[in-house]
TrEMBL record:
Transmembrane segments: none annotated. Residues 1-25 form the signal peptide. Keywords: Signal. This is Fibronectin type III domain containing 7. SUPFAM superfamilies: Fibronectin type III. InterPro entries: FN3_dom, FN3_sf, Ig-like_fold. PANTHER family: FIBRONECTIN TYPE III DOMAIN-CONTAINING PROTEIN 7. It holds the Pfam family fn3.
């Protein structure tokens, strides 16, 4: 029995082992065997193997000792990507089915190929291309080839161990394709790089020059260069360099200088760079107009005009025309002419040089003005205790008026082109000696003008103490430095207004209701005028700030500051401040005029609101740029038979200008290019009288119209020698 039992147990164990082996055979597919592993791209390895029966996919594994990268593929061959270039990897594969995955196959080693070199290409000359690259890891050599991008011509190929290579003897202005790759110690090539580069063009040939002596401009033409995108013409002299650029075979350079020899060269360019300059061509212009013209009146009544010699000048003609229409001239081979003159006139003088080639270009037109007269009927009008407004009638020959107010210690000045001025920042209750001097640009100020005397309004009194007794009587005490002034004290509150007057330093008000808050102020009055109110006492809160601050330019040196008065505010102080100084007014109104403003300067505008108790609120700050200065020295030049050039001297500060000519035959307007102080009006009828005004233009585009106007007469004398005659200044309200 025992032996039979042992035999039965042995049989059962054998059956269990057989069943386990069958179950194991169904749980995983066979282990695949790698046939080969190789790399054709620097970031991948391709693996080939024999198909495993029952396998639905395969797991490829690449390991370099630092990283492990796995890729699932469906069948052979399969590729592992995301690898490092020139790196040795150990490759294994597992087969996968629905029952599971096999063990890893025996490993096989494969190395990725070299990375492609990163190319930098340029064309240092019209027949060469330079190729450069960084060193490639594990590379011992490089192959670089080049051919025309259109497929024409031959292919050049060079091998090198360096990291740069230059291809020469190439076609100028031609697009080339460059291809390069590296190889390792086994001669296996890596990835390649491809790029395009164009050679720079050759210098243009067959340069032709056409010169226009009247317009002082030249036109240039040349033969087109292969592969050129653009051409640049350079006109070089000892003092200047002018250029013009074009994509065509010709261009024009204007604004050539008279009496100058230019060397002309032309270069071509494309996206690869510029060619060498062509051989230079010489261009000579016409002679210049005479310069260094000086005008003197010595003795008075005699004008002497002198100038410097000019190259190629055979003789000279001087034209002198006064603003009453009389014109004279002299013809000489010397460098000086003399004329009779009269006081109170402006003379316009031009000098021309002549030779066999013809007349020189129109030079500067000079003017000489005799000393202007002093202003008459000066009418000083007291505006406030710190400002005086003065008006007078215009005088002949004055281009600017200078007003000075002196009190023996200090002097306040303002300059303006209109016959009016507002003097600011004056001392109250002070006698001033006010003088208006007329000024012309050439002759300067007439210092013989008679002064006027004016006393400003009294100073505002200062309330020192406000007290109330048991009978509702208010005693107000103040302090003031005024002479012979009558003071009026006002107490104003929610329930009424009360006043008292005195010529001393105190007064009493009775009958005031109790339980109210009053603002108490004092005002001084003399024969000269009335002062601003004193600071009120008491004031528990600061006043409301005014709104709607507006700054308006009235004249070149006067602006108006206005605002909307806020609640509780009694007086305001407007201040304009810049690096040139400060202008200030103190007023109980909602505006004030500020004078002595410097044109063309950026000011900080400050407006303060002052309460009845003297507390001050700094209500508004803003930047204000005063209008550009009116130009001086406005002159007209004749350009040919039907053109006028208006020239002026730009004043301080950068500004744009607009010029208007008003005549019976039309209105003509011109705007100069940026940075120029002249502009030209063409096709203007001669034989007419024109009113000329040169106005600054604000950044907003607004034309400032307070500059003076001048009247000129344009004659029709001759085909090219008609004169522009100054007829005087036009006076407007």
């Amino acid at each position: 029995m025992a032996g039979g039992r042992e035999t039965c147990l042995t049989l059962i164990g054998f059956l269990l082992i057989c069943m386990k082996m069958v179950a194991s055979a169904k749980s995983a597919p066979e282990i695949p065997t790698i046939d080969q592993a190789y790399s054709k791209i620097s970031n991948s390895i391709t693996v080939e193997w024999a198909t495993v029966p029952g396998a639905t996919s395969y797991l490829l594994t690449a390991e370099d000792g630092d990283t492990v990268i796995e890729t699932m593929v469906a069948n052979s061959p399969g590729t592992v990507t995301g690898l490092k270039a020139a790196t040795l990897y150990e490759i294994t594969i597992r087969s996968i089915s629905a029952a599971g995955r096999s063990q890893a196959s025996p490993p096989k080693q494969a190395k990725t190929v070299l990375a492609a070199p990163i190319l930098e290409v340029s064309s240092p000359s019209s027949d060469s291309i330079l190729v450069q690259w960084e060193a490639v890891y594990m590379a011992i050599g490089f192959s670089v080839s080049i051919m025309q991008a259109n497929g024409l011509g031959s292919i050049w190929k060079e091998n090198t161990t360096n990291t740069s290579l230059t291809f020469t003897s190439l076609e100028a202005g031609t697009l080339y394709t460059i291809k390069a790759y590296a190889w390792n110690a086994n001669g296996i090539p890596g990835d390649d790089s491809t790029c395009n580069q164009r050679t720079s063009p050759r210098a243009p040939a067959n340069i032709q020059v056409s010169f226009d002596s009247g317009a002082l401009k030249a036109s240039f033409s040349w033969a087109l260069a292969e592969g050129a995108f653009n051409y640049t013409v350079m006109a070089l002299s000892d003092s200047s360099e002018l250029t013009c650029s074009t994509a065509f075979s010709s261009c024009t350079i204007s604004s050539l200088q008279c009496g100058t020899e230019y060397l002309i060269s032309v270069s071509a360019s494309n996206d690869a760079g510029s060619s060498k300059s062509s051989s230079t061509v010489t261009l000579k212009t016409v002679a210049c107009a005479p310069g260094r013209v000086t005008i003197q009146e010595d003795p008075p009544g005699h004008l002497s005009v002198a100038w410097s010699n000019v190259d190629l000048g055979d003789y000279y003609v001087v034209f002198v025309k006064s603003d009453d229409g009389l014109e004279v001239h002299c013809n000489t081979s010397l460098t000086e002419c003399n004329f009779l003159s009269e006081c109170g006139f402006t003379y316009f003088i031009s000098v021309f040089a002549y030779n066999k080639a013809g007349q020189s270009p129109l030079g500067d037109i000079f003017n000489y003005t005799t000393a202007p007269c002093c202003p008459s009927d000066i009418n000083p009008v007291l505006v406030s205790s710190d400002r005086v407004e003065i008006v007078w009638s215009p005088v002949r020959g004055a281009e600017l008026y200078e007003t000075k107010a002196a009190d023996g210690y200090n002097t306040v000045e303002c300059n303006d082109t209109v016959p009016a001025c507002t003097l600011s920042a004056l001392e109250c209750d002070t006698k001033y000696n006010i003088t208006v001097y007329s000024f012309s640009e050439v002759r300067g100020s007439n210092m013989s003008c008679t002064p006027q005397f004016i006393t400003t309004a009294p100073c505002s009194p200062e309330i020192k103490n406000v007290s109330r007794d048991a009978f509702s009587t208010i005693n107000v005490h103040w302090q003031s430095t005024n002479d012979d002034a009558t003071y009026t004290v006002t107490a104003q509150g929610e329930k009424g207004l009360y006043q008292c007057s005195s010529m001393g330093e105190s007064c009493t008000m009775r009958g005031l209701p109790c339980g109210s808050v009053f603002s108490v102020t004092a005002v001084a009055e003399t024969q000269a005028g009335r002062s601003l109110p004193s600071y009120s006492v008491p004031l528990e809160t600061v006043p409301c700030c005014p709104t709607g601050l507006t700054v308006t330019q009235i004249t070149q040196s006067v602006i108006n500051v206005s605002w909307t008065i806020g609640r509780v505010a009694q007086t305001h102080v407007a201040v304009l401040e810049s690096h040139t100084g400060q202008s200030k007014c103190h007023t109980h109104q909602n505006y004030c005029l500020l004078g002595c403003i410097t044109c063309g300067v950026n000011y900080t505008v400050t407006l303060k609101a002052i309460s009845a108790t003297g507390l001050t609120a700094d209500c508004s700050y803003q930047s204000y740029f005063s209008g550009a200065c009116c130009p001086l020295g406005v002159k007209l030049y004749r350009l040919g038979s039907n053109g006028i050039r208006i020239y002026w001297q730009a004043s301080r500060g950068s500004a744009s200008y607009s010029t208007d000519l008003y005549g019976s035959k039309g209105i003509f307007t011109c705007t100069p290019s940026a940075g120029l102080s002249f502009c030209d009006v063409t096709e203007i009828p001669c034989g007419d009288v024109y009113t000329v005004m040169v106005s600054p233009v604000a950044e907003t585009g607004l034309k400032l119209t307070f500059c003076p106007k001048k009247i000129y007469s344009v004659t029709c004398s001759g085909s090219t020698l008609g004169m522009v005659i100054y007829r005087g200044k036009r006076n407007e309200e």
